Amino acid sequence: MSKKLVLLMTMILCAIFLAACNSEEGAANAKSNDPLVMVWYPNESGSEMAGARDAFGKIFEEATGRKVEQKLTTDYAIAIESIASGNAQVAFMGPQGYIEANNKSADVQPIVVPSGSSGTLEDAVYYSWLAVPKDKADEYKVNGEFAIDTIAGKKFSFVSASSTSGFKVPSSSIIAHFTKQDAYKALTQDDLIEANALFPEVLFGDSHQGSAVNMIMGRADVAAFCDTCVSAYVDLVEGEANTAGAVYRVKDDAAAPFNNLPGEEFVLISATPVLNSPFVVNTSALTEEEITKLTELLISDETTNDPTIFVPKDSGEIGLFYKSGDERFVKVEDAWFDPIRKLSE
To answer: How far is the C-alpha of 298 from the C-alpha of 170, rounded, in Å?
Structure first.
């Protein structure tokens, strides 16, 4: 082969290599200049949560340098599909929703969860409640104590089949309890999605707030929902928080959907701890550098001490998180959510 031919082939290969590099660089720049889409569950999509969502938008914009778009939803499935498909790059979702998104795409991974008041994962939990109207509370007692047996034959409201504390955890506990009885031994979690031998009518609130309202307005006798999702709308007025017998009252100035229910009271008949909810990312839709910057900013002291992120409890402001002790965001990995996975086995 002549030197001229070798030189020509070398030049052609170099041109191809440079073109490829330029193409990759252009794609990367286009990707980095695209808006960062954050998708939210229905629980966090209400207008009263706009300030809290915007506070996180500022963090994500600072971390990535990309304009942030907020994608609001009315259905858990929309949020789960959005993050799994990469149409959204960041999401805040319950453990069960994360697991479903991760099952759809292994690219979906958790980065942080809010800690407990200790500032660690040791007490990083919230609570799944079963609640009933206060004036009906005695119907759910046996020998003066609240008993789960009393919910048989009642109209029941869940949140969504993809909700951890609004379906997965309570349904798992209900099945574990009632299948010990001959009348319900064949009952499965899937059966609880619609009318069944245990519940003559099953409703879904589509959000934790919606499930609570179903119970307060008498559409359902018993409702499952979580403490953190309704904390901005209700006050503890009797008993110990997150324990059976605790009484909560809707605030006089509560926002929708509680705005027409001021003063209404309900009682907890059970409260079960649940692993805290993660912020997750789609690793195929963000660069490793973006994910690192985002994680580091979320766990930083700057974010920890930001009152628009961890809202002081006595501030009167509505937020996603209310400061408790040394609470902050802490890194988390997929395996931490294995206890929730096991509920479906």
So the answer is: 30
Phi/psi of residue 192, each to 5°?
A: -75, -5
Q: Is the peptide bond before 307 cis (omega within 30 degrees of 0)?
A: no
Residue 335: is it exposed, middle or buried by C-beta count within 10 angstroms (0-12/13-18/19+)?
exposed
Environment class of 321 (CB within 10 Å of its CB; exposed 0-12, middle 13-18, buried 19+): middle
The mean pLDDT of 86-115, rounded to a whole number, is 97
**d(C-alpha 301, C-alpha 315), whole Å:** 20
pTM for the whole structure: 0.84
CA–CA gap between residue 337 and residue 221 (Å, rounded): 31
Separation CA 222–CA 158 (nearest Å): 9
Nearest to 132 by CA among 226, 236, 233, 245: 245
Rg (CA), the chain: 24
Dihedral of the alpha carbons of 29, 106, 76, 81, in degrees to the nearest 10: 50
Q: Is 176's pLDDT higher than 70?
A: yes
